[in-house]
Amino acid sequence: GQFYCDSHSFVGTKYGLDSKIKRDGIDYRSMERAGECSITRLDSGVIDYDELFDYVQNLVGQYNWKVKAIAYDPYNAQTLITKFEKLNYPLFEVRQGTKTLNIPTRNFRDQLYDDKIKHNGNKILAYAVNNAILKVLNNGWQLDKARNSNRIDPIAALINAFVAGMDYYQESEDQQHAEDYYKTATAADLF
Question: Where do the structural domains in the chain lie, given as residue ranges?
Answer without folding.
Answer: 8-66, 67-183
